[in-house]
């Protein structure tokens, strides 16, 4: 029974410790606002700066995982390069050791006088009282956040005391002492450190538990060192989890965190235990205290980073080799590499490079639409995630191309060159919107899959006809743009008009099915969302065609052009429209046949 109570008390202490650390870290982040993110993003142009910033930020927010997850987000969005992230992650490994020193405060104790005033109980009580006053009675948000920090600190201290109190009776238990001596086996100690930290998802919590156990006087240096080595590797678990769904650079950044600690563990294990085999260090049997563990943890992490710091370029090459780019990724990077600033001084060259990059954007948008449409008939989570990932890439295209083209407008150019740049500026926004509608369609497909929605046979047939028409208009648009084919571009508006008619027809048919009870309202919402997105895709394709056809004029007036085209439908337009109408005809319903 005593054993059960000890375990429950220890776990309650761990719970309080983790909650207190989380509350304190969240409060610190809110007090800092977005400044931490801005500092990380802007001041990482050298490895040393990156290490220092990573150390400081992690010491503030008390979590190397949180810092690294933040960095994974920056790299995933393209705001930061993998090389910049390596220094910050190294610094995060050093910064997380600061928590161990803070936890040493929880072991300050005294029975009388000044020692009693400086005891953990007194400090925690004073901090908690001030914190609750700030939290409950002060209106300013910053003071409330400071209150959270103070309450988090107090809870953290109480958690540490609870853990220490739970294990202190075990110091006289021979079975417990015997168990701890098994950790002196380096392999066993490392495995325990990895497993503990992977479960708790916090290196600081694992170090805190190790410090609490050291109060029993049963933890030797020989047991503490391998556990500390394993703790660093186990802390990579939440970071690796955070990289799920990110692009390859995001995954590479998460892998760097694991490799840093893995290399450190392997290197120092080989060096330390090889030397010990000849020298036989006498301090291996030294009894560890909370302060000694904090010191060992800091020295180990600092020494690891000192060894790895000169190898940043090698680490970068290794993660790129472990997570390789596929041909599509290399093609994307090649598009971005075209937009070199030195070409801006030569507008003809810069325009040619821009056209190639916009072509790449158009093809990615088309592929994403086809990928999203395929989800309607064959849904899979991997395909769905791919659509979201490629949408971020299409947004990146728009951002880079938009910036580059705006810079190009500042150069001296001919009228024809200005028209070309204007055309690209108009079309990239439409290609980006095509990507948005691909995401919308994928979300509808996700809803259909999760809610197990099934359309009636007639609705499925109607949708298949409309989807085929939309796939053709997207193909026409991308091919016409990439090949600068105005004859092909002229065929886009008739098809867009037909798609608009089809969408209205399908909406009316679906309303009829709803009235007749052949479909449910939840099916109706999904069906209507699909029609809206398909119709908007056709509209953006029409915009691209207009931009191409109007390149010869000095101004783009899309609405006036379309109004004139629809008003003066010539023979070529009507012939094209009729051809599409025959190709994408929807058989009349039984009711429509009877009415005829």
Automatic annotation (TrEMBL):
<feature type="transmembrane region" description="Helical">
    <location>
        <begin position="146"/>
        <end position="167"/>
    </location>
</feature>
<dbReference type="Pfam" id="PF02690">
    <property type="entry name" value="Na_Pi_cotrans"/>
</dbReference>
<feature type="transmembrane region" description="Helical">
    <location>
        <begin position="51"/>
        <end position="75"/>
    </location>
</feature>
<feature type="transmembrane region" description="Helical">
    <location>
        <begin position="222"/>
        <end position="244"/>
    </location>
</feature>
<dbReference type="Pfam" id="PF01895">
    <property type="entry name" value="PhoU"/>
</dbReference>
<keyword id="KW-1133">Transmembrane helix</keyword>
<keyword id="KW-0812">Transmembrane</keyword>
<feature type="transmembrane region" description="Helical">
    <location>
        <begin position="87"/>
        <end position="108"/>
    </location>
</feature>
<keyword id="KW-0175">Coiled coil</keyword>
<dbReference type="GO" id="GO:0005886">
    <property type="term" value="C:plasma membrane"/>
</dbReference>
<dbReference type="InterPro" id="IPR026022">
    <property type="entry name" value="PhoU_dom"/>
</dbReference>
<dbReference type="GO" id="GO:0044341">
    <property type="term" value="P:sodium-dependent phosphate transport"/>
</dbReference>
<feature type="domain" description="PhoU">
    <location>
        <begin position="359"/>
        <end position="443"/>
    </location>
</feature>
<feature type="transmembrane region" description="Helical">
    <location>
        <begin position="187"/>
        <end position="210"/>
    </location>
</feature>
<protein>
    <submittedName>
        <fullName>Na/Pi-cotransporter II-like protein</fullName>
    </submittedName>
</protein>
<feature type="transmembrane region" description="Helical">
    <location>
        <begin position="299"/>
        <end position="323"/>
    </location>
</feature>
<dbReference type="InterPro" id="IPR038078">
    <property type="entry name" value="PhoU-like_sf"/>
</dbReference>
<feature type="transmembrane region" description="Helical">
    <location>
        <begin position="114"/>
        <end position="134"/>
    </location>
</feature>
<dbReference type="InterPro" id="IPR003841">
    <property type="entry name" value="Na/Pi_transpt"/>
</dbReference>
<feature type="transmembrane region" description="Helical">
    <location>
        <begin position="256"/>
        <end position="279"/>
    </location>
</feature>
<keyword id="KW-0472">Membrane</keyword>
<keyword id="KW-1003">Cell membrane</keyword>
<feature type="domain" description="PhoU">
    <location>
        <begin position="469"/>
        <end position="545"/>
    </location>
</feature>
<dbReference type="GO" id="GO:0005436">
    <property type="term" value="F:sodium:phosphate symporter activity"/>
</dbReference>
<feature type="coiled-coil region">
    <location>
        <begin position="380"/>
        <end position="407"/>
    </location>
</feature>
